Amino acid sequence: MTVTGDFPTTQGTSADAASRRRLLDQDWQKLVRAGGILALGQVFIALSGMPVNFDRRLLIDPILSLGYLSLIWLPLVVSYWVGREQVLEGMTAYARGGRDVLAGAIAGALGNAGLTLLVVGITHFDIRDPLVNWSPQLLAILHFEESVWLGAVIWPVIGAATGALGGGMHCASTRITRTAVIAGLTVFGAAVLESVITDLSQGFHIEAVSDWLYGPKRGLTYPAAIVVAVAAIAVMAGIWAYRDSAMRAGLVGSRQSPAAPGESDRSRTVWRRFISRRLLGYALVIAAVVVLPLFLGRLTNELLANVGLFILLALGLNIIVGLAGILDLGYVAFFAVGGYSVAVLTSPGSPRFSPEMPWFGALFIAMLLAGLVGLFIGAPVIRMRGDYLAVVTLGFGEIIRILLLSDWLSGTFNGAQGITNIPGVEVFGLATVRGFEPRSVLYLVLFFCAIAIYVSWRLENSRIGRAWMAVREDETVAEVMGVDTVSAKLMAFVTGAVLGSFSGAILSAKVGSVFPHSFAIIVSIVILVVVIFGGMGNIPGVIAGAVVLIGVLGGPNQPGLLQEFAEYKILIYGALLVWMMLQRSEGLIPSVRRAQELHIDEMNQDAWLRAQAEADDATGGGGGNSSVGEQP
To answer: Does an H or E element contain 345, and which?
Structure first.
């Protein structure tokens, strides 16, 4: 096998194969099917009200708003998907070129023809009764506030252009494609993070930076968008250059490849440099986490505090789901135990039992109660597996919420009225952390996040962590090998429950009240989406998932940077969950071990095909063919 660009081609066949792939040699059935799916998706997005609601958020002033972006991104993704070709060992990979660009353009034009039909239908027919989200504002957006026929004609043209771009991504090298994607995402991130960047510029007294970046309507200006994109490209070019130099120096891959005789000192030096860079990176992250809140405004600190609360929850659920492989859909129960325990023990408004304990003392008791609840939930279901376990834990989560609402326990938890007048957190008598001081709340959350990260990291690399991962991979084999699976599962439930109680305890002190509706089952679903999206079993992945999802979209009851997404959050969470499960089940920043587990079948299949190809080469292409198709 040889490699041409980023695509492997069979020796001696690439030129002939490329000549046989004519421009019109297309899979027309696949293109029509993709165009139909795209058309339905575009019409759904338009009629869901997203273009109208998102049009208020400018990204690049004045040409691109989030509303128009919601109608542009899908043709790009679908056209890229149309051009994907799976090439296994022994198969011919054709050269990429104009055929892929044309395929993407055709799919994009067919898909955006759905918007043309929608514009014509809204204009000439009275369809407002069945299409309840139809509005004059939607029609104005679809025809760019100009002629209706302009909108009807221009959308297929836009679809063809974006589709050609998506198909053309297959013609470029991996580096160019990734660099372009990173540059686009960086521009989008700079536009979305307008409030954070403005807060930072005001905190550092460099308001001129934010004034230059953002126009009067708070979208990126033309020059700013170009500079941000060029800066992202320059950074990616530096990263590629560093990786090339590191590979030449032996920095990459030195863990897997033993040093040759006489190279031990060099390898040791390389690893010292690698470790020193990692330590420097950790030090910079810690310094940024400690210093930046001092220069951020109230809104940004409040947003980051909410993200930190979900990081705590996600770290706890990551132990149960990501490490131990137990699908717990009732994790919100531990969140509720932490919040209500601290509320009852610290609030003078607790109806039956009001000791008014210090917050840290109440937290210790809340941890014990959460651990007991973890044992109570885990013990009856510990021998269940798969879907049965998920359904039962879902039931336990709802049982906790209904008990908090019940008349039977209203004398203790005050039913639907909840518990109010919860005091702040006194830190060694020196300061009091209250909800109206978001910076102090953020520091408190960061302190407990650091504890949770350290505990998770130590447990992952300990004996119990290896037992959890063995249970996750194959519980039957783990039990045969001597792992006490019952104790391991119970320990996962207890540890996850204790970490979840941290978040509930901080939330009660931050808000000053707790209510049963704050612990609905949707909280468990959102936390699970965060863990899956970020990367199950990987601490940096879980943190990244919480920052991206909660920071941008917001939690079930918490706003994010894009407040326009408030009524579409659950829809987006569900779509992301489905997409991640189908296309990237290992997550955004996957754990290497977890990724290997999820793709073990593909790895085995590739290894088998590679062995067959090597056998064919060894026999001159004759004797090995008889074994193809047989079981390895």
So the answer is: helix 332-346
Q: Going by DSSP bridges, is the β-strand pair 431-433/425-427 parallel, antiparallel, or unpaired?
A: antiparallel
Q: Which two tokens stand for residue 485?
A: 């699976």
Measured distance CA(465)–CA(462) in Å, rounded: 5
| Segments in 512-599 forming alpha helices (H) | 521-534, 539-548, 569-583, 592-598
pLDDT in the model for residue 14 = 40
Q: Which DSSP state fits 514?
A: B
**3-state class (DSSP) for residue 537:** coil
Checking DSSP bridges between strand 7-9 and strand 2-4, what pairing results, if any? antiparallel
Q: Residue 512: what are its φ and ψ, rounded to 5°?
A: 85, 5
Q: What is the DSSP letter of 95?
A: P
Contact call for residues 426 and 357 (beta carbons, < 8 A): no
Q: How far apart are CA 202 and CA 292, in angstroms?
A: 12
Q: What is the 3-state secondary structure (H, E, C) of 359-394?
A: HHHHHHHHHHHHHHHHHHHHHHHCCCCHHHHHHHHH
Contact in structure between 87 and 66 (CB atoms under 8 Å): no
Planar angle of CA 484, 490, 491, nearest 5 degrees: 90
Cβ proximity of 524 and 332 under 8 Å: yes
Q: Both tokens of residue 459?
A: 């447990």
Sign of CA dihedral 572, 574, 577, 579: negative
Residue type, 171: C
Judge residue 253's burial from the number of C-beta atoms within 10 Å of its C-beta, 0-12 exposed, 13-18 middle, 19 or more buried: exposed
Report the distance separating Cα 369 and Cα 338, nearest Å.
8
pTM passes above 0.85: no
Q: Shortest CA distance to 316 belongs to which of 333, 340, 298, 291?
A: 333
Phi and psi at 313, nearest 5°, equal -65, -45
> Do the Cβ atoms of 363 and 485 come closer than 8 Å?
no
Report angle CA 120, 130, 566 to the nearest 5 degrees: 95
> Alpha-carbon distance 365 to 373, whole Å?
12
Burial class (CB in 10 A: 0-12, 13-18, 19+), 168: buried
Query: Which parts of the chain have pLDDT scores under 50?
Result: 1-19, 253-263, 621-632
Which pLDDT value is given to residue 93?
Answer: 65
Classify domain 298-595 at the CATH topology level.
Answer: ABC transporter involved in vitamin B12 uptake, BtuC (1.10.3470)
> Could you tell me the residue ranges of all domains in the chain?
7-172, 174-251, 298-595
Q: Residues 609, 610, 611, 615: what is their CA dihedral angle, to the nearest 10 degrees?
A: 100
Give the model confidence (pLDDT) of 421-464 as tens digits: 888 888 876 667 777 788 888 999 999 999 999 999 999 888 99
In contact, 34 and 108? CB cutoff 8 Å: no
Torsion over CA of 361, 367, 368 and 371, rounded to 10 degrees? 180
Tell me the C-alpha distance between 67 and 62, whole Å. Answer: 13
For the chain, the first-to-last Cα distance in angstroms comes to 22
Give per-residue pLDDT as tens, 173-223.
888 999 999 999 999 999 988 888 888 888 888 888 888 899 887 889 989
Q: Which residues contact 362 (CB under 8 A, 6 or more apart)?
A: 341, 342, 345, 346, 505
The C-alpha torsion from 516 through 518 and 524 to 525, rounded to 10°, is: 120
